[in-house]
Amino acid sequence: QVQLVESGGGLVQSGGSLRLSCAASGRSFRSYTMAWFRQAPGKEREFVAAVYWSGGNTFYADSVKGRFDISTDDAKNAVFLQMNNLKPEDTAVYYCAAGAGYYNGREYYSQTAEYDHWGQGTQVTVSS
Question: How does strand 117-118 pair with strand 92-100?
Answer without folding.
Answer: antiparallel
